[in-house]
Amino acid sequence: MSMLVLGLLAACGGGGGGAAAGGGTAETALNADTSTSPVTVVKAPTESTEVKPVGTTSGGKQPGVKHPGGTTPEVKQPEIKPPVVTTPVVTPPVVTPPVVVQPEDPAPATLQPTVNAARIPSGNAGVSTENMQTTNERPSASDGTGNFRTSCDYSHMAFDDPIVYPGQPGRSHLHAFFGNTAVNGNSTAASIANTGNSTCRGGVINRSSYWVPAMIDTRDGTPLKPSSSQFYYKTGYRGVVPSTVRAMPAGLRMIAGDAKNFSADGPFAYSCHGTNGASVPDQQGPSIPNCPVGSEVWQHIYFPQCWDGVNLDSPDHKSHMSYPITGRGCPASHPVPLPEITFNIIYPVTEANSTRRWRLSSDNYSSSIPGGYSAHGDWFNGWRPDIMETFVANCDRTALDCHSHLLGDGRAIY
User: Fold this and answer.
1) Are the C-beta atoms of 345 and 214 separated by less than 8 Å?
2) Of the ranges 30-34, 206-210, 272-276, which one carries the lowest mean pLDDT score?
3) CA-to-CA distance for 331 and 310, rounded, in angstroms?
4) Which residues contact 18 (CB under 8 A, 6 or more apart)?
5) Given this model, what pLDDT does residue 37 score?
6) How far is CA 58 from CA 49, 62, 63, in A?
7) How many whole angstroms separate alpha carbon 388 and alpha carbon 393?
8) Residue 120 CB: number of other CB atoms within 10 A?
9) Tens of pLDDT along 79-134?
């Protein structure tokens, strides 16, 4: 399949890493999420550094001050006269009526689509098992990029975002969640890594959570159920050398895109696909396309892959990550290359011209502007660390294609 990613992406050819199925992503860090929620910056473990108190010398002494000549000058005290005491004039207090505080003005009306919560679709309950088996199949040669993919069924929808609004369930616009079935507004790195079923291939070896704004049919506010999804972990684009890629650290989380965006610029794209994923010509771009009945709308979101090597999160949930610089790889500020994640969220088209009514739950702008510009994705690591290290070592670093099931060591996930 191929698709145009405005200003960001080249034609795809087998997956994410900067394209829905191959290609480039944004060259520099993109729009920051403008959430103002309080965030504690989480850092990866590092060595402690002694910090000396301010105002001390290397010997621990406070710096002193000497008067000229080494003696304290004599200070002549001024003559103090007793104050003149007068009787104050007492006037009765002026009584004024209490100030009546008017209620605050109501918040401005939202332009987000109305959501009929009663029509939220049910999802997959997931499994609690580790689904792996031995195989004689081995990774295949690639185009010089490293490729690992997986798929996860739709799990649930909720007005939650444990990255942007941690501990504040119900505060977010409606999201569709994939992967860990127990994720909610109170989820933490520990709960995601250790609890919940998984709707992903491989079962609970991958308890990661993937979420995006829900797609809404504005005719009646119905949230649309994704038919499937594909998540790519790839590398070898824009100057990143595959052999240098490291596995994601436990607890890492990140956001790609901007929920407040209302322009065609961003790390996202949409495309139409027909039978067996074949692209529908002239139906690719930055907004939700009008795909024919029987085809699928694919939403693609491209994540940064360069980590600062220290922080597992940041106040805007983006600054600890960066996109590579084309031809040069990761910038000095973010020197650690990780696999590049791409979300591919798939929606079936069952009615002619129905996609003209579709908007994202976060599309908070005029309906005269095409829908889909507020596309963004959230990723919270929940992989079993040894499994992630296995596919990064055997698929990404070796620049081989492990398709959507091979770990590259004689095991396959299902």
Assistant:
1) no
2) 30-34
3) 15
4) 8, 9, 10, 24, 25, 234, 237, 238, 302, 340, 342
5) 45
6) 15, 10, 10
7) 8
8) 18
9) 444 444 444 444 444 434 443 333 333 344 589 999 999 999 999 999 999 999 99
* Tokens linked to 362: 């976060």
Q: Which residue has the tokens 């398709």?
A: 403
Q: What is the pLDDT of residues 195-225, one digit of tens each?
A: 999 999 999 999 999 999 999 999 999 999 9
